[in-house]
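Supplementary Text 2. Reproducibility record for the structural model of the 430-residue chain.

All settings were left at their defaults, and a single model was retained for analysis rather than an ensemble. We include the record here because the model underlies the residue-level annotations in Supplementary Table 4.
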Amino acid sequence: MSSRFFVGLFCFSFGLCQFGIQKQSKVETVDGVAAVVENDVILKSDVMQQAYMVAQQQGVDPFKQPQTFESIFSSVLDQMVDNLILYQISLKDTNIVLDPLAVEESLKKELNKRIEFAGSANKLEDLFGEPLSMIRAKLRLEIKKALRIERFTGSLYQESSPSVLDVKNFYNTFKDSLPLLENRVSFSVLEWPIVVDDSKEVSIVSFLNNLKDSLSFGVSFSDLAKRHSEDVGSSSSGGALGFFVRGSLFPEYESVAFGLSVGEVSSPFKTELGYHLVLLEDRVGEKIKTSHILKRVEKGAVDIEKNRESLDLFLSEQGVYNSVETFDSLCAHFSVDKASFQGVFRNTPTSSLPPFLQKISLDSLGFQGPFLEKESLFFVRVFDYKVSEKITLENYYSELFSLTQNQLMGNKIVSLINKEKEALYVEKFY
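Retained model, structure tokens:
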């Protein structure tokens, strides 16, 4: 229905490795190399990992449906190559500057999404055959590329604004193949992250300080990590995270770790995972080798109840029960630390809602909640519900406008990629 669009990068660009191969060099076809784009090498194993994930999402068994899986592998490889070509194009735009905070926020969301997809952090490590620290480091590098491409392609939107005639032509061309609109709901949601009692954090810091003190009596850091660390990816190996460079781990972690002397253990400090003790084991150039002990800040029933009370008090003080506009304004503009899902959402397909929203009475208008989901409370106002119907220009124009725009933009990007291929070293081996 439309040309391939290359901004869905997180799925297909993860796991690329740079090998410093020059454009003029002759590259031998060696087992494991799937493609080369300038100085970037795409490993067959990385393509295979992504192809398996796509196959699982599509319900394809690679062993029972080898031809279908081969097609998926080929498609994934093509998109990974095209993404790298698009990245090379984006490097020419010197106005693009990445916000480090945006990188970390995207990393957090994408890593959580992958862990949820795999089922757990351990299962994700098994899936990729690497420790979580390495997965995070690779993913951060790829997110930087993805965000740069996103900034670049975003600048093309102004040049790809369709006219009313463009939208009508798109609709008339594809109206017979457009699916029915599924049930849709319009709602506003306020997220209230659970805050734990300060005494818990004080207790954790005190506990970690006691562990640090015990090191002076001959207890090894590795043994303490095996017994007490709550990082499932490293505790079994004594908290070892191996060597890494700046930009690979949490900024708070790196700030402390790079400031230590070899053999020194940090004081307790906090990241979004919890509190850490860090041992700097070695330093080689710009790389450091560390081990850590992690203690998470657990949220109990008392914490949840106290936060329910504080949320209810907040809503009452804001007068949201007397003014739905006030509640919608809060959802759109009120800033809450660590909030992950908040805002005003219109005509949202019910199948794309978060799991906790799929459990509520979507056709029952009004306030509902608060609902506890993971580490937050959510308070919801449902203000419209529409049943399935056929797509028309009247009930779906804004979406048809976006689809038309994506088609125009996709065609523009394909043209840019095809043109750039002529000036780049690009070779595929599969």
